[in-house]
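re the bet — no i am not wrong, look at it urself. input seq straight from the record:
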Amino acid sequence: MTDAMLHQDVPQTDVPQATPPADRIAGPIADTPDVLKRICARVRVDVEQRSQIMPLREITAKAREVETPTRGFGQALKQMTAERQVGLIAEVKKASPSAGILRPDYDPAAIAQSYQNAGASCISVLTEGSCFHGSTEDIARVRAVCSLPILRKDFILDPWQVHESRLLGADCILLIMAALSDEQAADLLGLARGLDMDVLLEVHDETELNRALALDTFLIGINNRNLRTLKTDIETTMALAPLVPPDRIVVSESGIKTQGDVHRVGEVGASGVLVGESLLREVDPGIAARRLLGFL
């Protein structure tokens, strides 16, 4: 895909931007011990503010008018499954609650290009601002220079965010089962599918896995990091992946640091790994991605 074609592939939007991170840290929310609850509380406030600028009816109409085709996030992982390989979903993010600032010189477009050149199958773009210092604008920046399918990694809790994701150019969204009821997850999943986006349902334990398997999606993300405590253990994938039916695609998220880790989760059924922190800590994330994939 040429540079000109890539730029044409970026939806043009005027979606209200999220509040800068520094403006959303103070107050009682910051004292909540459960990290997931703290972030979700901030997200709800942010969505409420932005939906006053662009109401749900308006953003829904705009999302339905988007003609830019999605790039097939799930299909890219299905291809890796058919080839009996583990695909890399390489993540771009500036910071995380557990690690702090990962790259002071953060350039999401350049990082995404280096991942694509390294052989990644898809790109994950973290857009949450308060803890990850992300921006919704980062999706457009990445999409303008990279032809890989894009996952919008965020805490999606509201229909407004689903429509926003399509406007921004996401090909897939993340839904975290720990943050949603079954009814909420089903509703958001249906909205996304109606907008031609794939959905990665994220789970961390067997209860959440069973809830996700009851929903109509073929993409199951097993997060090795407990979002309530931020502790990471790759054994989470080792325990849960064998419980997923073979007609679903499993993505192992977080805690993947070596080629050996990739092989381990692949042996129990993972078709993809979502990796960010271990790549972004390196001087050249692209070289780190090649090493993880066994190309170096």
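see?? Confidence is low (pLDDT under 50) at residues 21-30. told u. also The chain is about 40% helix and 15% strand. so pay up
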